[in-house]
Specification:
The chain is an alpha+beta fold and 664 residues long. The protein folds into three domains: 140 residues, Golgi alpha-mannosidase II (Immunoglobulin-like, Sandwich), CATH 2.60.40.1180; 335 residues, Glycosidases (TIM Barrel); 138 residues, Jelly Rolls. It is built from eleven helices and 37 strands. The strands form seven sheets. Strands 3, 4, 29, 30, 31, 32, 33, 34, 35, 36 and 37 form an eleven-stranded mixed β-sheet that branches. The chain has an eight-stranded parallel β-sheet with strand order 5-17-20-21-22-23-24-25. Strands 6, 9, 10, 12, 13 and 15 form a six-stranded antiparallel β-sheet that branches. Strand 24, helix 10 and strand 25 form a beta-alpha-beta unit.
């Protein structure tokens, strides 16, 4: 199209194939899209999700439980709970008191709360939730707890939901009886929406009552599952149409010490029997200390597999390789004690894929999923480095390949995309014949723009690449001041054209971290932000979504003067065919401050006369989305006309453009 800007430039400039944007004279770019031959398939796993329980992403986030420390298992067993009318250290107080009791040795649910009620009208027990409780007017909430009468005659537990001022917005009274543990339930419907509500418990009668597993969930969860996942957050994930779900992390896999590593077997089976663990991010960063950050494992490996199935994504679990986080202790399991770690990996494959007459397949079936999850991938280690990792990885690789040769093993190249650790890891993993190597990069926006050619130099016959963790850092890695601004997202979009153009090598990619609670975060930037009631996708989220939902099935060539467009005059491009939709898909990223005119010449197949363009753009590179303006930067769709297999289009400044045209 001839824009007003071109008209101002004058007829001579138009005839010469140039136009004036601002003070810069640009030549119209002629791009050739060759549809006659495909270069490589785009793997269904090309764009996926990396989930880690950082930034309160699980407890307090995706896992919809609203009670903090529901079974009194935190290191400080009353953390999250308060007794405003009682001094628990004084046995002479008038209302009553509660004390945690350890009644079981080992692992699992070790503690319960013994509540002595002296004055039923005076004693109160409160839970603060995860930075408060998001409560919605008219929604139904399921309140459950375990209880037993110990002494006296405490006859009922009254549950009240409170607003920020302490006013009751919902209540239920639940009779209790009997000296044996029993589970009690009630449904509560609040009459007000509040961002930071809380729970208050009071009691009828006097005496001693045992309490445990005090829980509050919305009934409106993802897929309506009882005690399930927060619906709005899963919807954002579902809308990404991810090819895989990598879980449970991240450095959380490793633990600061081996004793505090993530152990998948402790996260399956009955929820009330899963042992809690202090989250490794709780005091990692001085700028965001969160000593109340624990893992209840209500969101455990079974739930991760189930979520993968819901999303239509391949499950990709990552397991400890016997090395604690090398940024912390770097503790090593001795090689002669590695067998149990390897067995964990073999047992996980059985849990995911085994028949119901296998021990771990039966555990899966008993949890309600007799059909196998059909897991194809397993990761060994997160971002370990050095000879210690290679030595241990070899043992895992041999054992898994021998028993389950069909499983694809993901290895790691360390925490950085270059340097000694990276070079050593890549060299040694290639020697072993590693199938997929996981690379991580948290770098500046400039790095992402400058490295769109990164994978051109990779051996097409070597290991495939999993770009497992990446995000442009607006300030510096691990800085609390990093922003999810448009510059970071646009730079990632430019880089991702390079991932797509090298689909022979790159087969899986994922942004990281995925989620952050607005008041519980430790790390920035993050793709999705949420508070107790709301959530939104950042500009980075929309970049990921546009690539994932427009990936196509086969890579084809898009060139200018026979060369790939990778930053020349700040334009980047990639192209695919979508055999399922019978369309051609061209992605064009303009990182320039000026609009640029392109002419797309399509060869090899005939096109219909109309297509569409999905545009994500923003003139201010510092702009972000927010709770107040969730769609400040969001895609819009325009119509594109095609004439004789040629389309002319003005690419806006600072924009990502997804062009889709049906084939004849």
């Amino acid at each position: 199209m001839i824009t007003q800007t071109i008209k101002k430039a004058g007829l001579a400039a138009v005839l010469a194939g140039t136009f004036l944007a601002g003070n810069t004279l640009f030549a119209q770019k002629e791009l050739t899209v060759d549809m006659s031959e495909t270069i490589a398939p785009i793997q269904p796993t090309m764009y996926g999700i990396f989930f880690e329980d950082i930034n309160f992403a699980a407890d307090g986030g995706l896992y919809a439980e609203m009670i903090k420390n529901r079974s009194f298992e935190f290191t400080i067993s009353m953390m999250g709970w308060s007794q405003p009318n009682s001094d628990r250290h004084s046995y002479n107080n008038e209302s009553g008191y509660a004390l945690p009791v350890k009644y079981f040795e080992g692992e699992g649910n070790l503690n319960f709360l013994r509540v002595q009620i002296k004055n039923a009208k005076g004693y109160e027990l409160h839970n603060e939730g995860f930075r408060g409780m998001g409560i919605k007017e008219g929604d139904t909430y399921r309140f459950t707890f375990d209880a037993k009468q110990m002494e006296g005659a405490v006859s009922a537990v009254k549950a009240e939901l409170l607003d920020e001022e302490g006013n009751t917005i919902a209540e239920a009274s639940i009779p209790v009886s009997g000296s044996e543990w029993a589970n009690y339930k009630a449904e509560i419907v609040p009459n007000k929406t509040v961002m930071k509500g809380s729970l208050k418990l009071t009691f009828e009668g006097t005496g001693e009552l045992g309490l445990d597993m005090i829980s509050l969930f919305p009934t409106d969860t993802w897929n309506g599952r009882e005690n399930g996942l927060r619906k709005d957050l899963v919807q954002l994930l579902y809308d990404l149409d991810p090819g895989f779900l990598r879980f449970p992390g991240g450095c959380i896999v490793e633990g600061r010490t081996l004793a505090r590593r993530y152990q998948w077997k402790k996260t399956v089976g009955p929820v009330d029997e899963r042992p809690s663990l202090v989250n490794r991010w709780n005091t990692e960063f001085d700028h965001r200390l969160t000593p109340d950050y624990y893992q209840s494992f209500g969101l455990g490996f079974f739930e991760y597999f189930q979520l993968s199935e819901d999303l239509g994504a391949e499950p990709l679990p990552i397991l400890s390789c016997g090395i604690a986080c090398q940024f912390n202790t770097g503790e090593l399991v001795p090689m002669d004690e590695l067998d149990s770690y390897v067995q964990d990996a073999l047992d996980l494959i059985e849990f995911a894929n085994g028949s119901t007459d296998t021990p771990w397949g039966k555990v899966r079936a008993d949890m309600g999923h007799p059909e196998p999850f059909n897991m194809k991938y397993i990761g060994v280690g997160n971002e370990q480095w050095g000879p210690e990792y290679i030595e241990r990885y070899k043992v895992f690789n041999e054992a898994i390949a021998e028993k389950y040769p069909e499983i694809i093993i993901v290895s790691g190249s360390g925490p950085f995309p270059d340097g000694d650790y990276f070079e050593y890891g890549m060299k040694e993993l290639k020697k072993i014949g590693a199938e997929i190597i996981d690379e991580h990069y948290y770098r500046s926006p400039e790095w992402f723009r400058e490295n769109a050619t990164r994978y051109y130099s990779y051996d097409r016959n070597g290991p495939k690449i999993f770009a497992g963790e990446y995000a442009a850092q607006s300030v510096a890695i691990a800085s609390p001041d990093n922003k999810n601004n448009w510059e970071t997202a646009l730079s990632e979009a430019a880089f991702m054209t390079g991932l797509e153009r090298n689909a022979e090598v790159v087969q899986l990619t994922s942004y990281a971290p995925l989620m952050a609670h607005a008041e519980g975060w430790q790390w920035t930037p993050d793709m999705i932000w949420f508070n107790n009631l709301e959530s939104y996708g950042t500009p980075n989220y929309y970049v990921q979504k546009l690539y994932s939902t427009n990936k196509g099935t086969d890579l084809i060539s898009v060139t200018q003067d026979g060369e790939n467009l990778v930053g020349q005059e700040e334009l980047y491009a990639s192209a695919t065919l979508d055999s399922e939709a019978n369309e051609v898909v061209v992605k064009v990223v303009n990182t320039s401050s000026e609009a640029q005119e392109i002419q797309l010449n399509f060869e090899g197949k005939r096109l219909k006369s109309k297509g569409s363009i999905i545009v994500l753009k923003e003139a201010d590179l510092t702009q972000e989305n927010s709770f107040e303006s969730t769609q400040e930067i969001a895609p819009v769709t325009e119509e594109l006309k095609v004439k004789k297999d040629v389309a002319t289009y003005e690419v806006s400044a600072y924009s990502l453009n997804i062009i889709r045209i049906p084939l004849k």
